[in-house]
Amino acid sequence: MSIIVIKFGGTSLATPAHICRAAQKVAYYKKTHDIITVVSAMAHSTDNLFAMSREITKTPKARELDMLLTAGERISVALFSMALERLNMEAVSFTGSQVGIITDTTHTDARILEIKGDRLKRALGDNKIPVVCGFQGVSREKEITTLGRGGSDTTAVALGAALGAERCIIFTDVDGVFTEDPHRFVGTKKIGTLSYGEMLELSCRGAQVLHPRASSIAARYCMPIEIRNSFNKKSGTLITTVEGMEHPKPKAMTHCEDLYLVTLVQVLKRSHYLSQILTELAEAGIHLKFFFHGISDEKRFDLSFITPLDERAKVKKILRGIMKKLRIRQVRESVDICSMSVIGQGIGSESKVLTKIFTALSQARVHIEAVTTSELSINVFLKRTYLSRAVRALLKKFHLTRK
Ligand code: ADP
Ligand code: ASP
Ligand code: MG
Questions:
Q1: 135 vs 211: CA distance, rounded Å
Q2: Which of 341, 337, 335, 340 is nearest to 383 (CA)?
Q3: Which residues pair with 256 in a beta bridge?
Q4: Which of 2, 15, 158, 328 has its CA at 20 to 30 Å from residue 120's CA atom?
Q5: CB-based contact 68:46 (threshold 8 Å)
Q6: Residue 343 beta carbon below 6 angstroms from any ligand 1 atom
Q7: What is the pLDDT of residues 182-205, one digit of tens each?
Q8: DSSP per position, 315-381
Q9: Residue 270 in this model has a pLDDT that exceeds 90
Q10: What is the pTM (predicted TM-score) of this model?
Q11: Does residue 321 fall inside a structural domain?
């Protein structure tokens, strides 16, 4: 029998009753497939554990944080296995380390290096349903690690890829992938099918429904993913290889709030300055969402970049050092920046789509700070106060809302 990996997010496991309901979904698929179940921590449990650590210290060691946060998934796997047993199915719970999810040593944001999976294969061979803790692994130094917040999606897709599963089903609290976050924008539509590239772009630009690293693994291994609602039986969204030859069309939108725009004004043009600034930012792990190097005059240039707002303190610390060293006179910053992205195969090079975006935004009186394009997306950076208005204008322009 071919394998399906089934993953449940925290909202779908909020109470023991939720867990029992989720187990029935697994029972349904077990009739025709071998099933590996991956579970997140019960709703709010990871946040609650994190909050407890904050009551003790604002600067916990990352190792201890991983040890703490992985406890949430441990509770879920045990309860889930019990719920499956109650339905007369043989189940066995596993931590990430027990199934050999080997990661690097970057606590709180570890990368998967290898999945051994022997115990999973053995459990499947014994006709048992393995129930695996999402979000966690173990380093070669035998330290417990986590894959970053929302990392259970990554566990599910990585296990699917490693074990040659037919597909992964991600059960969550919405009916599938929508044209924008259905909890934030009314009237959005569910999308039937998305290409791997489109899903990856959506995830990376802010759509929480599938973690960017899970999207990335799915794209690399061509692992089909269904996103479905754990609270009903409706068909969901299928993420698979691209459909249609060439038909550039906006399919969805997403946004990312809480960004931070910095401009280093009139930096002296020295060949090594640019690389020095970027190296220092990269070494501190700063994630650049946008980067623009513009000519100010013959001797100087301006450098603008955008990062997540929660990296502001780190960026400021680096800039204090750089300003002195490179004799930078002025730094401008905005803390009220966000981005909005339109996603669709091939749209980034379609001037008609760009024109429609700019026309709709100017009619909605939205001021744009910066724009980037890629083959699959057009990304507009703007002040946060414009976000809702801007998204609504574009959803309407591209017919991405229900009639
Ligand atoms: P889980 O706990 O199941 O992992 P998440 O909260 O991580 O669930 O992801 C599901 C949420 O993603 C939805 O509740 C929804 O608010 C949000 N979301 C953001 N963008 C989209 C989108 N385009 N389509 C569907 N859901 C989206
Ligand atoms: N429990 C973890 C979190 O809340 C992982 C996950 O839900 O995917 O981030
Ligand atoms: Mg999630």
A1: 11
A2: 337
A3: 339
A4: 15
A5: no
A6: no
A7: 999 999 999 999 999 999 999 999
A8: HHHHHHHHHHHTT--EEEEEEEEEEEEEE-TTGGG-HHHHHHHHHHHHHTTPPEEEEEEETTEEEEE
A9: no
A10: 0.94
A11: no
Query: Atom of ligand 1 at shortest distance to CA of 11?
Result: 2
In Å, the largest CA–CA distance within the chain is 76
Q: From the CA of 41, how far away is ligand 3's center (Å)?
A: 11
At 263, is the secondary structure helix, strand, or coil?
strand
Let me know if residue 26 belongs to a domain. yes
Q: Looking at the predicted structure, is the pLDDT value of residue 223 above 90?
A: yes
Considering just the CA atoms, what is the radius of gyration of the chain in Å?
23
Domain membership of residue 324 (yes or no) is: no
- H-helix or E-strand spanning residue 354: helix 351-363
DSSP code at position 11: G
β partners of residue 338: 382
- pLDDT value at residue 244: 66
User: Among all ligands shown, which has an atom nearest to the Cα of 227?
Assistant: 1
For 290-300, write each residue's pLDDT tens digit.
989 887 788 88
**pLDDT for 348-371, tens place per residue?**
888 999 999 999 999 999 999 999
Using alpha carbons only, give the angle 319, 325, 328 rounded to the nearest 5 degrees: 65
Q: Rounded to the nearest whole angstrom, what is the distance from the C-alpha of residue 160 to the centroid of ligand 3?
A: 17
Residue ranges around ligand 2 (CB below 6 Å): 9-10, 40-41, 46, 72, 134-135, 149-152
Tokens of 209: 């429904």
DSSP string, 207-262: -TTS-HHHHHHHHHHT--EEEEETTS----EEEESPPSSS-----EEEEEEEEEEE
Return the closest-CA partner of residue 259 out of 302, 288, 294.
288
Contact 362, 336 (CB under 8 A): no
CA of 259 from ligand 1 middle (Å) equals 20
For residue 349, the 8-state DSSP code is G
Q: Which domain holds residue 141?
A: 3-173
The helix (H) or strand (E) run that includes residue 101 is: strand 101-103
Nearest to 26 by CA among 35, 17, 18: 35
- The reply to whether 333 falls in a domain is no
Question: Residue 48 maps to which CATH number?
Answer: 3.40.1160.10
Place of tokens 């009753």: 17
Domain count, the chain: 1
Q: Is the CB of 10 under 6 A from ligand 1?
A: yes
The number of CA neighbours under 13 Å toward the Cβ of 78 is: 5
pLDDT at position 111: 97
State how far the Cα of 116 lies from the Cα of 97, in Å rounded to an integer.
10
Counting ligands in written order, the one closest to the CA of 46 is: 2
